[in-house]
Design brief:
Aspartate Aminotransferase, domain 1; 2 domains; 7-stranded mixed sheet; 16 helices; globular; binds pyridoxal-5'-phosphate
């Protein structure tokens, strides 16, 4: 029988979930079903002239894996297809993506506006690193639109935000902040790690750049680190790519391959974990030892209407305050609860198939000054729970048992 070329679907016509399975696929000459892992740093040429041409026609073919690698490109193109982005580039970690997405365009004399409610390392970049390069940080209460309005009443180069925020699940009004930011001349960079592209599409709402810690839900099985930057073709190729190419935070093809396969199950995992998280949040809210449960779509969340408008679900993360001790602290109570859990694991990671519990005050946000932690809503009684893929009733049973020790 004569050999036929394999069929490839037109990914643009597929529904979102199918894009996560077929997007970006580039088959090698061996007709493999599962995507190939190209562990190669370089590429060869048939002649010196061909090498010259490759460098002249930048981007037409692979020349060096710091610039582009076929496996990494499959991961980038697959997520770009799902996110509705024209351009994507994968990085070593989520923090490399955050840093590059800001530093590729900021320069001395610029202003950056961001909310206090940020992941510890993100706050460090905005508050401590930006000033070292002459960029003035302006921090606001992310839930208070009047503070955004005032901060963005002056020309601004960048807005950086997380929504929902880590760990207090504060919601920023993406549409309103993007409108204010664009009037001030700012590029809006959204860290969408908590919502994931399954539940929230910042580019469709008006953001200019989306970044992910792919370490979290995109891998979702705790195996490797990674990050990704998604934006429009012009900003991506003219501003972001030259910065990345010359500073080198390129993802390893192996990690890109793991993350590429993680994308295939992303919608299913985030859907199941999110449904379980909503159930767990309601359980926690009704428990007498819990002072307050934080979850974007709970009726008690101050921004639940906004959360329902800009997200299609509350996400996989639940935070809660245990009822504190006599001093209003709550660290001892939080530690007793965590230490009494049997199935839910103590870890500072999140978005995993295994349920993970964290005490932000002493770990992820441990190095941040106390007054700044409190400003972001982090107190010693706060616990962050990343809901995994276990049976939700087992998660509740474990919490029920552990809450007896609070
Ligand atoms: C974990 C996390 C990061 C950092 O990602 P890494 O892959 O660990 O570098 C950035 N932003 C948020 C919201 C995160 O949760």
């Amino acid at each position: 029988m004569t050999r036929t070329t394999h069929r490839t679907p037109n990914v643009a016509n597929l529904r979102p979930r199918s894009k996560l399975v077929h997007g970006g696929t580039r088959r090698s000459g061996f007709d493999e079903t599962s995507e190939a892992l190209f562990l190669t740093s370089g590429y060869v040429y048939g002649s010196a002239e061909e090498a010259e041409q490759a460098f002249l026609n930048d981007g037409q073919r692979h020349v060096y894996s710091r610039f582009r690698n076929p496996t990494s490109a499959m991961f980038e193109d697959r997520l770009a297809a799902y996110e509705g982005a024209e351009w994507a580039y994968a990085t070593t970690t989520g923090m490399a993506a955050v840093f590059a997405a800001l530093m590729c365009h900021l320069k001395a004399g610029d202003r950056i506006v961001a909310p206090w409610g940020l992941f510890g390392s993100c706050l460090h970049i905005v508050k401590n690193l930006c000033p070292r390069y002459g960029v003035e940080p302006v921090l606001v209460d992310g839930a208070d639109l009047s503070q955004w309005e005032e901060a963005l009443s002056k020309p601004t180069a960048a807005v950086f935000l997380e929504t929902p925020s880590n760990p207090c699940l504060e919601i920023v009004d993406l549409k309103a902040v993007c409108d204010l930011a664009h009037k001030a001349g700012a590029k809006v960079v959204v860290d969408n790690a908590f919502a994931t592209p399954v539940l929230q599409r910042p580019l469709e709402i008006g953001a200019d750049v989306v970044v992910y810690s792919a370490t979290k839900h995109i891998d979702g099985q705790g195996r490797c680190l990674g990050g990704i930057i998604l934006t429009d073709a012009k900003f991506g190729s003219e501003v972001v790519h030259p910065f990345l190419r010359h500073t080198g935070p390129t993802i390893s093809p192996f990690n890109a391959w793991v993350l590429l396969k993680g994308l295939e199950t992303l919608e299913l995992r985030v859907g199941a974990q999110g449904a379980a998280a909503a159930t767990v949040a309601e359980y926690l809210e009704g428990h007498p030892k819990v002072a307050r449960a934080l979850y974007p779509t709970l009726a008690s969340h101050p921004q639940h209407d906004l959360a329902r408008r800009q997200m299609t679900g509350g996400g996989t993360m639940v935070s809660f305050h245990v009822k504190g001790g006599k001093d209003g602290g709550g660290k001892d109570e939080a530690f007793r609860l965590m230490n009494a859990l049997e199935m839910v694991l103590i870890s500072n990671n999140l978005g995993d198939s295994k349920s993970l519990i964290t005490h932000p005050w002493t770990t992820t946000h441990g190095r941040i000054p106390e007054d700044e932690k409190r400003r972001a809503g982090i107190t010693p009684s706060l616990i962050r729970l990343s809901v995994g893929l276990e049976d939700p009733q087992d998660i509740i049973d474990d919490l029920e048992r552990a809450l007896l020790s609070v």
